Amino acid sequence: MDRPVVGTSVIIIKDGKVLLGKRKKKIGYDQYQFCGGKIDMFEDLEDGAAREAKEETNLDVKNVKFITATNDVYKEYNKHYITLFFVADYAGGELKNMEPDKADDWDWYDWDNLPEPLFLPIKNLLKQGFNPFEINENK
């Protein structure tokens, strides 16, 4: 039976900016994305998000928090993803492109001035009105 794939997207915050890179994968090619990937079997969600951030960018993160999910359908590719979004604070490390076959052009951007074009999960996140700098700590 076909089912959606669960992916992760990690919004890393440093000095009031968020980290994005350009995709090199077929789906969303040349579109800006947050770092992320897939959770491993039996892995804690927040641990998986932190691991993916490190694997892709060489950055350590802290205060990893699940914030929301998006439903991302790519009919032209016969693909369906549920993307789990996390927010994390930069904790250290030098930004390096650790997976140059998957993404490049990693850089820090103001939330109110994100680069274009954006990857579908980010577009769907923005439709929810989400802003990582306005998170209600009581949730």
List keywords for this structure.
single chain; 139 residues; alpha+beta; Nucleoside Triphosphate Pyrophosphohydrolase
Describe the structure.
This protein is α+β, with helices and mostly antiparallel strands and 139 residues long. The protein has a single domain, classed as Nucleoside Triphosphate Pyrophosphohydrolase, CATH 3.90.79. Helix content is 15%, strand content 42%. The protein contains 2 helices and 7 strands; from the N terminus they run E-E-E-E-H-E-E-E-H. It has helices at residues 45-57, 120-127; strands at residues 5-14, 17-23, 32-33, 35-37, 60-74, 79-92, 103-109. Strands 1, 2, 3, 4, 5, 6 and 7 form a 7-stranded mixed β-sheet that branches. Strand 5 and strand 6 form a beta hairpin. The longest helix has 13 residues, at 45-57. The model has no long low-confidence stretch (mean pLDDT 95).
